[in-house]
Design a protein that fits this description.
There is one protein chain. The protein is α/β, with parallel strands linked by helices. Helix content is 36%, strand content 17%. The protein folds into 2 domains: 263 residues, Rossmann fold (3-Layer(aba) Sandwich); 180 residues, Rossmann fold, CATH 3.40.50.2000. A hairpin with a 2-residue loop joins strand 10 and strand 11. The longest helix has 22 residues. The radius of gyration is 23 Å and the shape is globular. The two termini are 45 Å apart. The structure holds adenosine-5'-diphosphate and alpha-D-glucopyranose. Adenosine-5'-diphosphate binds next to helix 1.
């Protein structure tokens, strides 16, 4: 819903080193005397993201883009900028036009709308129907193909952020810091740098493998200066990388777990950027701040569940299991129920799950799978279910209610990711008493205690995975042990509090550094 008239903007809120030889990746923010103090000034921060779970999401980035700004708002005036996809424009919250931005090169003119979510979060919506008003996901058509003009679509997003930071477009709210997320927002710090803005920028890597790489021939239409095409800029093997732009031009880089922050400086995980990131780490400019999960993840009160349950109420959990079996047309069984709740993409190691599925079924287990993604992976999952009727059930697609019911009803979550920057599903599962069987990598390594709250395995191989599964089967047969592990997993302190303080400190440090630099 967009209000036709250009309305006057009303302010709803009153926004009252380098050098470690061995980088410390766990929230390394080294700023003498720049700690965030409770009660200190609320900073104005613009989050730039391509998805937000309240309106549209394809994975964990959407969850974080919703939960983190809400958690940060205790300390700072955080607002979000996202493109005006149909899911955003057609939502129930009204949108008031608060600004207009001119076109540049091939980037069309657009309007800025303001939407206030019922919980008070302010969202700035980039309204440009020719770029964003299309049926599909934020990145492509429903057939999985990326939009051919994504370089224009997300350059427009980055430029809009830079223009708002420059105080242009009559938005009447100028951020003191811009926090950009993943490659779709990578050009925000870049345009700000090229325009000579002193506003500090933070770039968060949620997934290094998605880079937004385009032909260097696009420079003129994107208004990218020629000097950006260098190794220290956004050049990547002769092309333009939006992700590298975010890395190269931001004041600081974070990623979403300490282990992934370290992994991405190695050739195995660095996606060709390990050298670049290693040098940032050496300068103290790369750190890991783990994601959390929001308060809605409470099995005793979650409205998505028909059968709410609490710790030690294993009958309640069993009722959820029965519901999942019915939903996936699985036979009644007292064996373990495994869940897959995942984007169906290479990262998630689903081919490994295909490799152990027979073993799971032969041991008396069942598998319920929900997700969507690459067409071949979707088909492989459908075929798997056809081979094991009553034992393996698949729903291609995604909805939050089914996903939550699966976390609540399953005994184990399968998450054999090849890499996992943070991972939220394993935290959701633990909170609902489903023990993850997961690869020992990234955020999975940081949030699962092997043999205590889940089962980790080291190698991306069926053998290594099967060994962890054999431990899961063993525990399932020992109910006291299973329930003890469930209790421990359900009480893990996964919340946003642990992330809020390091982000708040980092925001404050970056704003203060930028202020000193101006003198
Ligand atoms: P990733 O972001 O890599 O997919 P995470 O574990 O961080 O992994 O986040 C997964 C989030 O996305 C969870 O909220 C999960 O329920 C949700 N999700 C999983 N599969 C899909 C899908 N196909 N479409 C939309 N959301 C999904
Ligand atoms: C990405 C990562 C995932 C992470 C999420 C949110 O999608 O794949 O590991 O949890 O972003 O940060």
């Amino acid at each position: 819903m967009i209000s036709a008239a250009v309305e006057p903007h009303v302010e709803l809120f009153n926004p009252n080193t380098r050098e470690p030889q061995v980088p410390d990746f766990a929230t390394t923010v080294k700023a003498p005397g720049t700690q965030h103090r409770p009660g200190s000034q609320k900073r104005k921060v613009l989050f730039v993201t391509s998805e937000i779970a309240d309106l549209v999401k394809t994975g964990g980035l959407g969850d974080v883009s919703s939960a983190l700004p809400k958690a940060m708002r205790q300390l700072h005036d955080v607002r979000v900028l996202i493109p005006g996809y149909p899911q955003v424009l057609d939502s129930d919250s009204p949108i008031h036009i608060v600004g207009e931005l001119p076109g540049h090169a091939a980037l069309p003119a657009c309007k800025i709308g303001r939407m206030d979510l019922t919980d008070g979060l302010v969202i700035y919506v980039l309204i440009c129907p020719e770029l964003y008003q299309r049926e599909g996901t934020p990145y492509g058509a429903n057939n999985g193909r990326d939009w051919p003009d994504n370089h224009i679509r997300f350059a427009r997003l980055g430029l809009a952020a830079a223009e708002i930071a420059a105080g242009e477009g009559m938005v009447h709210w100028t951020p003191e810091l811009v926090h950009a997320h993943d490659w779709p927002a990578g050009l925000a710090p870049a345009y700000m740098h090229w325009r000579g803005l002193s506003t500090p920028t933070l770039f968060t890597i949620h997934n290094l493998a998605y880079q937004g790489v385009y032909s260097r021939g696009s420079c003129p239409e994107l208004a990218i200066p020629a000097h950006a095409l260098q190794q220290e800029g956004m050049e990547f093997y002769g092309k333009l990388s939006y992700l590298k732009a975010g890395l190269a031009y931001s004041s600081h880089i974070t990623t979403v777990s300490a282990t992934y922050a370290q992994e991405i400086t190695t050739p195995d995980f660095g996606c060709g950027l390990d050298g670049f990131l290693g040098s940032k780490a050496q300068q103290g400019l790369l750190s890991g701040i783990p994601n959390g999960i929001d308060e809605s993840w409470d099995s005793a009160t979650d409205k998505h569940l028909v059968h709410n349950f609490s710790i030690n109420d294993w009958e309640g959990k069993a009722r959820n299991a029965q519901q999942v079996r019915e939903l996936f047309e699985l036979e009644p069984s007292s064996g373990p129920l495994f869940a897959v709740v995942s984007r169906l993409v290479y990262q998630k190691g689903l081919d490994l799950t295909l490799g152990v599925a027979e073993y799971i079924v032969n041991q008396g287990g069942q598998i319920a799978i929900i997700g969507r993604g690459e067409p071949e992976e979707e088909q492989a999952m459908r075929d798997l279910a056809l081979r094991h009727p009553g034992k393996i059930g698949v729903r291609i697609g995604f909805n939050e209610t089914d996903a939550r019911r699966m976390f609540a009803g399953s005994d184990f979550l399968l998450m054999p990711s090849r890499y996992e920057p943070c991972g939220l599903s394993q935290m959701y599962a633990q909170r609902f008493g489903s023990l993850p069987v997961a690869r020992n990598t990234g955020g999975l390594a940081d949030t699962i205690e092997n043999g205590v709250t889940g089962f980790l395995f080291d190698e991306s191989t069926v053998d290594s995975y099967r060994e962890a599964l054999s431990r899961a089967f063993y525990v399932h047969a020992k109910k006291d042990l299973l329930n003890a592990m469930r209790c421990l997993s359900m009480t893990q302190p996964f919340n946003w509090c642990q992330a809020v303080e390091p982000y708040a400190r980092l925001y404050e440090e970056l704003v203060q550094q930028a202020q000193y630099a101006r003198y």
